[in-house]
Design brief:
Order of helices and strands: EHEHEHEHEHEHHEHHHHHH
Shape: elongated
Strand content: 5-15%
Strand order of the largest sheet: 2-1-3-4-5-6-7
Number of helices: 13
Distance between the termini: 66 Å
CATH architecture of the largest domain: 3-Layer(aba) Sandwich
Structural class: alpha/beta
CATH class of the largest domain: Alpha Beta
Amino acid sequence: MHIGLIGLGKMGNNMRTRLRNNGIEVTGYDRNPDVSDVANLVELAEALPAPRTVWVMVPAGAITDAVITELSDVLDAGDLIIEGGNSRFTEDIKHNELLSAKGIDYIDAGVSGGVWGVTNGYGLMVGGPEAQVERVMPVFDALRPEGPRAEGFVHAGGVGAGHYAKMVHNGIEYAMMQAYAEGYELLEKRSDIVNDVPGIFGAWQRGTVVRSWLLELLVLALQHDPTLANIEGYVEDSGEGRWTIEEAIDNAVPVPTISASIFARFVSRQEDSPAMKAVAALRNQFGGHAVKSAE
């Protein structure tokens, strides 16, 4: 099988490598000519056999919109676009409407695995027509981890279902990371009792109910920097966490743990939290509790 791949950054370039290593022919395009196989999207389309399959792996939002719009003018009826970025599921509906008017099929794919996916494989959640998913199953099988397909791939439903599943996946990820982080801080705080925090997390990797790949990654980080002294406590958030909370509100689904993990990231961006100033002022007013001077 031969596919096109647009976007050869950290994820896209690694995906191209894994696909090629697993017998899929890939022609890649990127704005960076040093990594691109072709000069433009027209050349990409000319290089692919019909019916064409093009995987789009670029940043969500305006860039994805621009690429899909340009592809809609380059590809033909019967071709297929797989959109694998972190787009909001509502964008998939819009993209599918644009493409279906021209007879071009569309699949949305949530992809998890990060920089490790090139060796470990990528967890895949896809949405779209059954026939099109089956047509490109060799591509999904090449990307997913080894082992049973059902443990690394799911056809989650119609268009939008793949990115919806990835959105919820990332919301859960936020909450899990926050739980590990809070446990780390509590262990660090009691240095009078605990003298091997990295060792504790390392010992949790086998046999315990909190073991996970995220735990393994935290252990790896602590091996490189046992007190995390070289890392600033500032954390960004991608769109999926916010979208998960918005969906929960729209559907009256309580997600207090995921919500708290998002708000904790906001706290990390405040050198001197106005909210905590207000709390300190209130405690001083009603209980006479001491406050620290800002000077």
